[in-house]
Design the sequence.
């Protein structure tokens, strides 16, 4: 039987994924066809991006899983019509992109690349081993970044909801764990999902726990940061600089103070993209698992919201 896989995403995504997904279906022994439109009761799987107009999953009575093209699922996880299992995207190329973005910006701050010398007054930067990087979030992305930063020689600590173990990373959880990570982070990287529990996790109180002159890199979600509190801390100098990739409103409005702030670097949500070839492989692998009666990989917990 040929499986009907509906690609529900914005314009242009079908052309990007059509070839890669069909190749991946074949590679995983699936007889499946990718469609842009079909009677809902005939659809076996939905590959989904929030740019899709599809919001009501009720008529998809035969659908066995919804496979998100995005790692962040905040725009679909609370949809009350979604009764089907939901998988978020864990794509090796997306992970690689995030590792490169995070390591690049950590090294930029570590080496002071934004402040080239204007007079001959040598200031030798410390070695990575003398610098502490904290990661809020130790999931697929946070863990990969932590491991890469350890390889570069940094002291790395991280914080997650449940206790974790990662070689050569000081892993913390719980409110005390958060305070411990904040207190020692010269550079803080936020890779938490957008959930009610993580909203404004960086606020006036928690930002004040960072060491004087700390730097922040946020490729997680805009909702993690209380923007007014961060701007106040940047103006006071307690936070020396911030690199922000994600925002409460995207595109970031032209009048937003982040654009003009001398110590803020804005990147337009480009830290890590899902790549069709590798993502298609993950999607096909997941469909093959469900067809074989095995559990879905990367299933989202509706209760935790990620
Ligand atoms: P993930 O594997 O689900 O990991 C999430 C991490 O956050 C886990 O370590 C989790 O703890 C921790 N966490 C969640 N809620 C928490 C809480 N209340 N307190 C403490 N820790 C909490 O997600 P991922 O694949 O690494 O992705 C992380 C986020 O990156 C995504 O949700 C998305 O928002 C963002 N992202 C951004 C881009 C970009 O281009 N800027 C691209 C992709 C993803 P446990 O380990 O205990 O579960």
Sequence:
């Amino acid at each position: 039987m040929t499986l009907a896989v509906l690609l529900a995403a914005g314009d242009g995504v079908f052309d990007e994924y059509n070839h890669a997904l069909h190749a991946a279906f074949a590679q995983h022994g699936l007889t499946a066809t990718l469609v842009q439109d079909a009677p809902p009761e005939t659809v076996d799987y939905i590959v989904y991006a929030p740019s899709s107009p599809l919001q009501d999953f009720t008529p998809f009575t035969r659908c066995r899983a919804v496979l998100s093209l995005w790692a962040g699922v905040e725009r679909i996880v609370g949809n009350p019509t979604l009764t089907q299992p939901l998988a978020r995207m864990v794509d090796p190329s997306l992970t690689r992109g995030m590792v490169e973005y995070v390591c690049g910006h950590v090294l930029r701050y570590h080496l002071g690349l934004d402040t080239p010398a204007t007079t001959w007054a040598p200031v030798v930067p410390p070695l990575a081993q003398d610098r502490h990087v904290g990661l809020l979030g130790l999931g697929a992305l946070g863990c990969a970044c932590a491991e890469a930063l350890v390889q570069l020689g940094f002291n790395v600590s991280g914080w997650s909801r449940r206790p974790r173990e990662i070689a050569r990373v000081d892993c913390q959880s719980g409110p005390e764990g958060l305070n411990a990570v904040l207190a020692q982070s010269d550079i803080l990287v936020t890779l938490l999902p957008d959930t009610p529990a993580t909203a404004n996790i960086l606020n006036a109180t928690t930002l004040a726990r960072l060491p004087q002159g700390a730097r922040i890199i946020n490729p997680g979600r805009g909702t993690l940061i209380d923007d007014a509190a961060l701007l106040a801390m940047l103006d006071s100098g307690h936070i020396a600089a911030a690199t922000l990739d994600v925002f409460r409103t995207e595109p970031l409005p032209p009048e937003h103070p982040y654009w003009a702030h001398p110590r803020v670097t804005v990147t337009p949500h480009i830290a890590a993209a899902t790549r069709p070839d590798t993502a298609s492989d993950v999607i096909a692998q997941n469909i093959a698992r469900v067809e074989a009666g095995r559990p879905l990989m990367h299933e989202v917990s509706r209760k935790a919201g990620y």
Observations:
- The first helix runs from residue 13 to 27.
